[in-house]
Structures are given as structure tokens and as C-alpha cells.
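Please, is this right?
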Amino acid sequence: MKQYTVFGSKGFIGQKMVKVLRLNGHKVWGPNRADPDIYKRPLGHVIYAAGVTADFRTRPFDTVEAHVCFLSKILKEAKFESLIYLSSTRLYSGVSKGSEDTVLHVQSQDPSDLYNLSKLMGESLCLASGRKNVKIARLSNVLGGGDDNFIASLFREARKGQILLRTALSSKKDYIHVDDVIDLLSVIIKGRHSIYNIASGQQVMHGQWVEYFVKLTGCKAKVESGSPEISFVPIDISRIREEFSFTPRYIFNDLLWDEN
């Protein structure tokens, strides 16, 4: 039995991580960020899942507090055996290659890049902190529960009878099942590298999602006129394939939608 501390334990991934760890017989603590005991008691193995996602554009100070400031205090003052910082493959926006060693580009003038800048600062703090056993997990688009992502919103529309897509059918992203994420977070702390892409390595077009939901629910689908194509660079998962023999689960599974 090990001691784990999960920051962001009320979020989609944090809740799932807590549940799985406890089922596996581990002790898990999911403290509020204001809890003074964080800096007094041993935290064991830390999963840093605290963050702001969909509404980061309207919550810039909360975003920086979660991704950088609170993390900084943990790295400076807390007692832990290991720490995994959950970052994002969103960092590969605007580059041609989605591998962990890719040189990344951000613009402070772009409001959307506040998220990327804060995640990069969090990553840099982890790597420059001098603390041992600190890893970075760059997560792709996670499916398998939760209701604040693009695919979940499509499914809600499908169940009401019609999907209205505001992006081109040719738009595409990488998606990964939440169970794959949990499995990988449990092993990457022992990996050879500091940064790992947590993704499927497979891009799915929006047209494939529409076709899937139409078949699943019998809904109708419409693409708004002039909808732009929004696509992201393929994510390189060679590290997790080679080190952990990772094979992604099949995304198009009816069981994904039972919770929504």
C-alpha cells in the first residue's frame, strides 16, 4: 500500500484517479489547496491534476494560480516521494511535430495562449526545481466520462435529435480513453524520460464522430455554413509505446457514453 495525494481530486481525471487508487488498496488524500496540512505531512506520491480547462480565457488569474503558483509552493515546501504534473498536448498548437522534444511556440498577445504559457511555466518549474522523481504528462483529449469537452457536447446534442457542427467535418484531433490515462500515470514515474505524451497517436476527424453519433442515436446532423477546419498536429507516442508497450483502447465504444 502506498500513500498518494491528488490535487484536483474533484475534477474529471482526479476523481477517476482517486477511485482507481483506492480500489487498488492505496491510501489517497485529496486536499483542498488551502489546507495547511499540505506542507506539514508527507504527501507520498503526488498527482498534480489541479487546473483550469474550458473556461481559462475568462479566468486568467485562476489559471495561472492553478498551473503555476500553487505548484511552485508544492515544489518548494511540500514533502513528497514523487510528483506527476498534468500538462497538455495543446502545447503543440502551431508546430509541425507533436513529439516531446519539439520546440514550442506561444504568443503572449494571443488570449488562447495563456493556457499554453501557464502549462509551460509549470513544466519548467518542475524540471528546474531540483526535486527528484518529478515527471510531466502531456495529456491529449480525454474521453470516458466528464461533460465539459467537445465530444460530450456532441453526444448531448445527438440525444436531443440533431447535431449542429460549427467546425468542418475534416477537422481532427487525438483522443485517448481515460482508463489509458490512469494506466499510464501509474507507470510513467518509473520511466527514463522527464516528459511523456499521454495520447492515442491516432487522429479522429469530426466527420467520423458525426457518423458515429448518427448511427448510435439516429439523430440528424448539419454543418454550419462556412465552418472552419480546426486540426491539430499528430501526437507522437513512441516513448510510451517503447517503454511501456502501450496500445491505446478503441475510442468508438458505446460504454464511453453511459456516464453522460
The chain has two domains: 3-142+176-198, 147-173+202-233+250-257. Helices lie at 12-23, 60-77, 113-128, 150-160, 178-185, 206-217, 238-244. The longest strand covers residues 82-88.
